[in-house]
Amino acid sequence: MNLNANIPSGPIEKKWDSHKFNLKLVNPNNRRKYDILVVGSGLAGASAAASLGELGYNVKVFTLHDSPRRAHSIAAQGGINAAKNYPNDGDSVWRLFHDTVKGGDYRAREANVYRLAQISNQIIDHCAALGVPFAREYGGLLSNRSFGGAQLSRTFYARGQTGQQLLLGAYSAMMRQAAAGTVEIMNRREMVDLVVKNGQARGIVARNLVTGELESHAGHAVLLCTGGYANVFYLSTNAASCNVSAAWAAYKRGAGFANPCFTQIHPTCIPRSGDHQSKLTLMSESLRNDGRVWVPKTKGDKRPANQIPEEERDYFLERRYPAFGNLVPRDIASRAAKMVVDESKGVGPTGQSVYLDFRDSIKRKGVEKISGEYGNLFDMYYQITDEDGYKTPMRIYPAPHYTMGGLWVDYNLMTTIPGLFALGEANFSDHGANRLGASALMQGLADGFFIAPSTVGGYLGAAKFETVTTGDPEFGAAARTVQERMNRILSIKGKKTPSELHRQLGNVMWNDCGMARNEALLKRALKKIPEIREEFWSDVIVPGADKDFNQTLEKAMKTADFLEFAQLFVKDALERRESCGGHFREESCTAEGEARRDDAGFSHASVWAYAGEGKEAVLHKEPLTFEHIKTAERSYK
Amino acid sequence: MNNTKHFNVTIRVWRQEGPEEPGRMMAYKVNDVSPDMSFLEMLDLLNEDLIKKGAKPVTVESDCREGICGACGLVVNGDVHGPDEHSTVCQLHMRRFKDGDVITVEPWRVKSFPLLKDLAVDRSALDRIMAAGGYISVNTGAAPDANSVPVNKDDAEEAMDSAACIGCGACVAACPNGAAMLFTGAKLSQFALLPQGRPERQRRVLGMLEAMDKEAFGNCSNEYECEAVCPKEVKISNIARLNREFLLANLFGKAEPSAVSGHLLSTPDVPEDE
């Protein structure tokens, strides 16, 4: 597997500019002759489709939703980072670059992250021009707030709905291109396979989710903007339809999958209430700006929160990390919460939660100010839990939220399959082993608005293309494979629903490969996952037909892919015998219980290659070198 | 969290195999419902049960289940998005119901949203309204520094109020005329309130209203139902602004006077502003 990252030479500040100069261009009159298939319509997909459409390419966008505006980017709450330094607190491109590399625990590629920090400012400019109603100061200029992992305010926001507003901005730009005829929106289509011909990605097979028909689409490049795979845990903050299937199909067609075990467990989620639970709801990390996290100092203290006196409370983040306090990065906050819960200091009916308390900030700022900033989150909390966060502390617990791992891409965001690009959360590139808050929106839009339009053009301008049509045998073969898989699923007629099997898998992943991992647990998971897979293929039940609007079949196909992918996920976690970012191996920690990285052994991206059905995936490594940022133990104390 | 006693309900739900098939209400028992379940989790329970029996589960759409994606949308006991005010149906919890309740569940019934199956409808007409002008025409890379265009804070806040629309279609489902004027008015307002959106405001309103008519949405007759059900509390003043934008476009627009008619038949009597 060729893992040449194609990082341009020259000083890091000049790499992107000189690379853009060196990339081949496609003449404006020729662009319409190129068909680009964009899979997914979230921030990365919608922004890429809009920009490529503006340039004049012929773009098709596939979304499994009834409307492209429903992609899960819509649910991001807190904000988007940029290095504008509007608040005059010492920010710069260099500092955002530094914070992101450090935040990712030195497991990201320097050149990519530097470019991300450079582009961050253009994103804000463009989104403001698109009519995104960012929060403003009275003088009419943009407002900023602080977020975890940073000691300054660089986060732009639109109340608690920043993802929604940015997605609607990108969506509206894309709909403008739909009206202009450069972008065709394919609603309710799910990519079920990738078509590779002569070593190039040349199309996809998609299932029309209303009619159930398999449809073939040919193109010159395929952009996977299909998000992350946190739903491998069954319960996560992701939407129900988030899945790994498109990325998994690409992996099976030859794309390397990098760092699958790098998962972000988000600290501020509403704890689960019972087995019926279908998802976990995140509350923005911005809450940690004003909320203080604590548990009772005494084990098993069942008194209501308001009756526990100040001196009997353990503000464990402030105690352990005085410099960053409640604003430590997500992985650290999550692990600290797990640690106190494991010590039986957890609160709430299940004991599986910690307090997030606004008492002091309400006293200091007044309830109006707090509700102005976080009102929608307090409302959401009330709707779900029936508890009033203004009067008693909220209860929170970590939940799977984001996946830093994904398809391996080079500096051009191209996977190991020529012509197949991966953007946004679907790729692995920028966040290393842990993503900082408000950086996912930044990356999705950087990839889609600013990077892919140059690099996809560069590929199209340089590559040679044979004529490919959907009548070619590769399309038929791919469709047949999918059809056989569906037939098999439908014919089993067993006793377990796809959701039950998915939940079983999720339990294994959460218990054995969640916030803390060790060799014994991981090996146990590697035994249990094939058992569930076996159960799926012998005992699943899916009523109805394939040529129909069949949500159970959709769910079954996604679950089948998760059951295969989970094996690779755990294998990767087992192989990485160090702790870094969200990946915490109990065997590798300091005396104080902090993660201990092993730079000598693991300063690389682990890239897995598919070796065929039933065969063990093969590990390749892309070494990571740090020329500009000195690696150090990541301390927030 | 206080009441943990489980209970049983009966669900009367609309079943329809496809757009051309006849539909009917079917009743199902759902047992062992927890008050902490969301309404959709209760439907999950029903569907899991149906699947296990080899029967077809009820087709029902939802995705984020946190009230922001706009995918869910049901009429529960006659209420669009259920009995809770200003909430999506995914945020409705079973603590709102009690043992023995018979709960009626129906899809959005709107001419412009053809029914696909059971409770799922096609709302792509709203996307087509958006494609007809619901954007600011600025190409990627052309924008000036974000702080070079100051925006009055109150305007920005009001634009955000309008922009909060999640495109669920509840306003249309609740309107006796099947009008999409709150949806369209919200997008027009967002852009009319921001300096960035003003250069093409006339084109925008004419385009979006034309698309609205083409998709056979009705007109506003001051019922206020849309505002009452909107999960994001988008206000009816957005329709007033739609009418104002339309009037201004027809009076002063350089484009040909619009063939669109009828939108000014009634204007909600709420304060307007510029």
How would you characterize this protein structure?
The complex is a heterodimer of chains A (637) and B (274). Chain A is an alpha+beta fold and 637 residues long. Chain A has 17 helices and 20 strands. In chain A, 37% of the residues lie in helices and 15% in strands. Chain A has helices at residues 15-22, 28-31, 43-55, 93-103, 110-129, 162-180, 245-252, 316-320, 330-342, 359-365, 367-385, 440-462, 473-492, 498-513, 519-539, 551-575, 599-602, and strands at residues 35-39, 58-62, 80-81, 145-146, 153-156, 183-186, 189-197, 200-208, 214-218, 221-224, 257-258, 263-269, 292-296, 313-314, 354-357, 394-403, 406-407, 420-422, 604-609, 618-623. Chain A folds into three domains: 33-264 and 402-462, FAD/NAD(P)-binding domain (3-Layer(bba) Sandwich), CATH 3.50.50.60; 265-401, Flavocytochrome C3, Chain A, domain 1 (Alpha-Beta Complex); 473-602, Methane Monooxygenase Hydroxylase, Chain G, domain 1 (Up-down Bundle), CATH 1.20.58. In chain A, the strands form five sheets. In chain A, strands 6-2-1-10-18 form a five-stranded parallel β-sheet, sandwiched between helices. Chain B is built from eight helices and seven strands. Mean pLDDT of chain B is 92; it is low at 256-267 and 269-274. Classes of the chains: A alpha+beta (637), B alpha+beta (274). At the A-B interface, α3, α5, α6, α11 and α12 of A face α1, α2 and α3 of B.
Architecture of the largest domain in chain B, according to CATH? Orthogonal Bundle
In percent, how helical is the residue content of chain B?
Answer: 25-40%
Give unreliable regions of chain B as ranges.
256-267, 269-274
What is the highest CATH level, the class of the largest domain in chain B?
Answer: Mainly Alpha
How much of the residues of chain A is beta strand, in percent? 15-25%
Rough outline of chain B: elongated
